[in-house]
Backbone:
């Protein structure tokens, strides 16, 4: 069929297969079909058929429909579009039980549910992974297709966890995320995503009949243009799939990790460091023409800066390229977005200033004089204040976010780097590299009210969504400290997490911590509770900062 001639998009789908599809149009595949059909100005029609063996042969290849909304990107029986998401198999448990790896000793004692296609318990990756470890006697199989005579047939494996019939389920992420959210269960992606010949993470695409290049290309373009809507869709359906963006200062790009696998490298400009995700699907990255200087290097021994390279790169994540560059003042290093997404507050290290950039007009509205060598920039949760760290002066410069005036300059320990507010905005934590401490600031009075000793050289910060925990990277200390935000004490220290960990990011579920390790050109994936290193992911050169998507 030629899409451009017929102006109809015929989709084959299962009528009773939530969270993917149903006749009422409530599934994620139904929603995706509406998005792409609307983008192509095509009428959407369905051919309904339960998914069984021979599904492609009896639907797509029999010309009953033009597209299947979800197939593995490497699926040989169809021509696949670009992936619209990547997800993985996950462990689903009740609160109080946590499993993240097939090598967890607890799996030998727990009752485990796995999805199976046949009756030999060996045809899905989790079944294989358990089998080679000799974990078979405590495994219960649940048919992938389920009982079509019942509503939500694929929910059975997750319902079994909720009823305590089994202790842990290993299921495909989108299915598990949807039903686990309804039952209040925990979801943890299998890690690492590849173990020997077994793979647990897969990119998913739209499948069309092989040879229908016109439709495949049209759908590719629709996915690219509608990426922000698709990302929002994934969040709404609780698909366990998040992206980690890493600024690679030494290779002038941003590495993109999906399910802890590098899926893209995006050139953004010279010396990318600070980066932030915006709700509108844009990624902002501070780039700079100032030469890199290691410890002990004098400024007068460096080549002159190229100010033409300074700015804030704007990356359209739907197109995966830097589409424009905003001004950011001289040598922009870190920044934050105003709560309404209208402004950028940018630290200018060489100028001892904070630039206020209006995104819509691409102009600098104001330059606020702050302390020498400003670095960290964080907007308060209520959007009224901007906290800026001054490395050289050992202070926090508190700026009014609407009037762009300096309000206070509380002193902190030497060489402050990063700031993180508690969710209620009452307090702020500030790392001090040379002070071997994290200072606690009363953000109402802008006064230091505590100091937490942290071994090493405290650099980056990550805070849990509920504000109960703060993770602190220690740079050359090679560790991450975990602070109890209620008692302001170090609970534990994760040793040897990487070479000079700097930027930190926390997964949306709060179970994984990511550290950018500059000297070793990789990112550590860390179990946020135990500190166990789950993976070391090679990225670009000298990774600096990390931003994590919300889904």
Residues:
């Amino acid at each position: 069929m030629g899409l451009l001639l017929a102006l109809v998009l015929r989709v084959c789908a299962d009528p009773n297969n939530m969270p993917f599809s149903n006749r009422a149009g409530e599934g994620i595949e139904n929603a995706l079909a509406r998005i792409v059909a609307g983008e192509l100005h095509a009428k959407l029609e369905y051919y309904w058929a339960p998914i069984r063996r021979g599904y492609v042969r009896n639907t797509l290849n029999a010309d009953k429909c033009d597209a299947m909304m979800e197939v593995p990107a490497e699926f040989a029986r169809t021509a696949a579009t670009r992936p619209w998401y990547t997800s993985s198999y996950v462990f689903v448990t009740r609160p109080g039980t946590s499993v993240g790896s097939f090598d967890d000793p607890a799996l030998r004692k727990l009752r485990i549910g796995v999805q199976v296609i046949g009756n030999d318990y060996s045809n899905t990756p989790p079944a294989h992974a358990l089998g080679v470890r000799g974990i078979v006697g405590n495994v219960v199989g649940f048919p992938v297709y389920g009982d079509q005579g019942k509503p939500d047939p694929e929910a059975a494996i997750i319902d079994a966890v909720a009823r305590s019939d089994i202790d842990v389920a290993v299921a495909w992420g989108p299915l598990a995320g949807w039903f686990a959210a309804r039952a209040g269960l925990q979801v943890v992606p299998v890690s690492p995503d590849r173990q020997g010949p077994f793979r647990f993470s897969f990119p998913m695409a739209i499948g069309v009949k092989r040879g229908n290049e016109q439709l495949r290309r049209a759908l590719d373009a629709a996915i690219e243009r509608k990426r922000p809507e698709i990302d929002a869709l994934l969040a709404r359906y609780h698909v366990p799939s998040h992206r980690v963006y890493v600024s690679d200062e030494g290779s002038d790009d941003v590495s993109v990790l999906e399910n802890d696998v590098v899926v893209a490298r995006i050139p953004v400009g010279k010396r990318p460091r600070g980066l932030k995700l915006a709700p509108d699907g844009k990624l902002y990255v501070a780039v700079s023409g100032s030469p890199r200087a290691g410890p002990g290097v004098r400024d007068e021994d460096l080549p002159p800066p190229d100010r033409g390279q300074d700015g804030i790169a704007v990356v359209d994540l739907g197109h995966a390229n830097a589409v424009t560059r905003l001004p950011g003042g001289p040598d922009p290093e870190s920044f934050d977005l105003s709560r309404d997404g209208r402004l950028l507050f940018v630290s200018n290290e060489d100028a001892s200033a904070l630039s206020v950039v209006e995104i819509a007009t691409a102009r600098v509205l104001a330059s606020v004089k702050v302390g020498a060598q400003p670095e960290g920039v964080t907007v308060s949760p209520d959007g009224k204040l901007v906290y800026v760290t001054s490395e050289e002066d050992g202070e926090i410069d508190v700026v009014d976010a609407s009037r762009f005036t300096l309000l206070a300059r509380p002193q902190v320990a030497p060489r402050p780097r990063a700031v993180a507010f508690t969710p209620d905005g009452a307090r702020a934590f500030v790392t001090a590299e040379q002070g071997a401490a994290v200072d606690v600031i009363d953000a109402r009075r802008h006064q230091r009210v505590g100091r937490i000793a942290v071994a090493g050289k405290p650099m980056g910060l990550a805070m849990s969504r509920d504000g109960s925990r703060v993770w602190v990277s220690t740079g050359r200390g090679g560790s991450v400290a975990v602070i109890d935000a209620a008692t302001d004490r170090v609970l534990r220290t994760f040793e040897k997490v990487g070479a000079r960990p700097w930027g930190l990011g926390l997964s949306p579920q709060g179970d994984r911590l990511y550290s950018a390790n500059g000297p070793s050109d990789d990112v550590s994936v860390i179990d946020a509770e135990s500190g166990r290193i789950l993976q070391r992911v090679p990225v670009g050169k000298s990774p600096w900062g990390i931003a994590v998507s919300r889904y």
